[in-house]
Amino acid sequence: MPIVVEIDVMLARRKMSVGELAERVGITPANLAVLKNGRAKAVRFTTLAALCQVLDCQPGDLLRWEPDVPEPGDEGSPVAEEGSTAATVPAAGGPA
Question: How much is the pTM?
Answer without folding.
Answer: 0.70
